[in-house]
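Suppose you are handed a protein chain with no further information: no name, no annotation, nothing but its sequence. What can you learn? This example shows the usual starting point.
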Amino acid sequence: MKRTILFAICSLFIAITSFGQTSTEQFETESHGSTSFTDNGVIFNIISHTMIFDIQANYPQTGWNGTANDNRYIDNSGTGNQSEAASFSIKTTSNLFKANKFWVYVSAANLDLTVAGTLTVTGKLSGVTKFTQTKSSGFTTSISPTNGYTLIDLTNLNGQNYSNIIVDEIQLTLGGSYQYIALDAFTWVKDSGIVLAASEVKSSKKEISIYPNPTSGPLSIKTEKATDAQVYGMDGKLVKTLPITKGINNIDISELPKGTYILKTSTESSKIIKN
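A reasonable first move is to predict its three-dimensional structure. Written in C-alpha cells, the prediction is:
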C-alpha cells in the first residue's frame, strides 16, 4: 500500500515539474512553398495525402493568427484533382506532442464559404489512430470577423476533449463540398513528461525484457516477435531507432548521455536508465 501511494506521489511530482510548453505556430517566418516548418525547436513535416499542401505566402492578409489577419499559412491553393477529398497531415518524428487548437478556412475551390462540408480531424501515434472526429457544422460562413477562419478547439471538439492525447501526427480531411482548406495559428504542447506518462509505461506483463538495466551502454533486448523500437529522451526527442528481431538482440547505447530514456514499440513502453 505504501509503495502504491509513493508511486502515485512520484507520478504527480513528475507531471507537475514537467508541465508542457504551449506554443503557437503562425508560419510568418516560414518560406513560401515549404513542406515543413519549425516551431519551438521541433521540425514538423507537411504531408500531402491528396492535393498538394505547403506554406502559402503569396496572398498577404489572408491568414488568421487568432486575433488578426496575417500573411502565411498552410493550404492546398486549389492544386490537384478537385474531385478528390483534400487531405494532409502535420507530422513530426523527432518529438511527441499534444494538439490544442488551430484555425481553418474551409470552402469550395472558389473560396465560397457558404457551401456545406465536413472536416475530419485524426490524431495518430506511430501510424496508429488515437482519435478521430468529424465536424459537420458550426463553420464560419462569412469573412468577418475572423477573416473566414473557424476555430477548431480540441479541448471541446463535438463535446470531447482530445487535447491531452499524445500524438506525432494530426491529419485533416475535407468532405462534402469543401475542396479548399487553409490552416493557421496551430497551437500545440511540447511536454518533456509526455513520454513518461503513467498510462504509457506499462509495469505488468511485458512482451519485451531489457537487461542489464541500469546499463553503462550494452543492452540485451529479448522479445517474442520482430518489431521496430524507438528510444526517446525525457525531452520527448527521438534519439535512436532500433530494428528488433525475435529472440535476443544485443544493443549498445554507449553514445547516449547519462540519464533516463524510454524504449517504445507499437505495443508498450519501457524505461531505460543509462549510467
